[in-house]
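User: Just a sanity check before I run the rest of the batch. Below are the structure tokens for the first item. I only need the designed sequence back.
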């Protein structure tokens, strides 16, 4: 229990800093290290995702970094996808889930390496984004002022969020990488706003699907308690230290870890000794 709690704290810190959610670490850890059934691991991970969102999102909203309008709008897509994904998870073979999870981790690593194309300064937001009043500002502590930013690719970003929701419900993760892809790469939102808004959204997405896991008996309180508490503590820590942590170095360490874990999950799904 101590090891699980400690790992959950680390997962919460990383999830809060990068906006990927703690579930992407918790699920493979429980499956590989403890041999826990992947559906119980995903149930615990979903609670950790909600804890990450609760811990970090509150701080980001308070600091004015999260864009609540974008978060609520895109959560429509992720919620619909999450419910569909949770139903799929209940009728999918455990080995297939493990392989799918591993592939999702490798895709996450690839997406995280993508560089956002630069938007020309002063370029106006798309017509749909303007109508929905999605453009906003975020505080810059270095320049001591609020910086405004435009928003683009609303429709494409919405579709990516639906896929992110399916993966969240299917695999018990926050699918933060796909949320970051939608907002950072497609909608051209600043990375800090993307991370903060992603942390807000992953909790809404997880909450949409966790009821299905609960109804089927895949939420084990003995497992959920240390995971949720650990991730919640880690999320608060991550939100507080975010301004002082070199995100690039953290990303490199995180990417190496998820690539290794992803390969192990795929090998486990094919029942090959890793």
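Assistant: Here's the designed sequence for the first item:
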């Amino acid at each position: 229990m101590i090891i699980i709690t400690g790992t959950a704290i680390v997962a919460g810190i990383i999830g809060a800093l990068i906006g990927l959610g703690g579930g992407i670490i918790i699920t493979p850890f429980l499956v590989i290290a403890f041999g826990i059934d992947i559906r119980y691991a995903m149930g615990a991970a979903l609670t950790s995702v909600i804890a990450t969102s609760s811990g970090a999102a509150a701080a980001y909203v308070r600091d004015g970094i999260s864009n609540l309008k974008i978060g609520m709008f895109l959560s429509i897509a992720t919620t619909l996808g999450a419910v569909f994904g949770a139903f799929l998870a209940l009728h999918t073979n455990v080995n297939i889930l493990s392989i799918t999870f591993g592939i999702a981790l490798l895709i996450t690593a690839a997406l995280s390496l993508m560089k956002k194309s630069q938007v020309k300064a002063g370029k106006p937001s798309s017509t749909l984004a303007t109508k929905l009043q999605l453009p906003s500002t975020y505080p810059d502590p270095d320049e001591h002022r609020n910086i405004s930013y435009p928003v683009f690719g609303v429709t494409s970003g919405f579709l990516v969020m639906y896929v992110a929701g399916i993966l969240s419900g299917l695999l018990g993760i926050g699918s933060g990488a796909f949320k970051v892809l939608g907002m950072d790469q497609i909608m051209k939102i600043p990375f800090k706003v993307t991370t903060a808004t992603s942390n807000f959204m992953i909790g809404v997405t997880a909450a949409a699907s966790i009821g299905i896991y609960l109804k089927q008996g895949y939420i084990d309180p003995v497992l959920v308690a240390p995971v949720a508490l650990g991730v919640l503590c880690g999320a608060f820590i991550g939100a507080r230290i975010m301004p002082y942590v070199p995100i690039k170095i953290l990303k490199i360490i995180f990417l190496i870890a998820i690539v290794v874990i992803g390969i192990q999950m795929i090998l486990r799904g094919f029942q090959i000794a890793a």
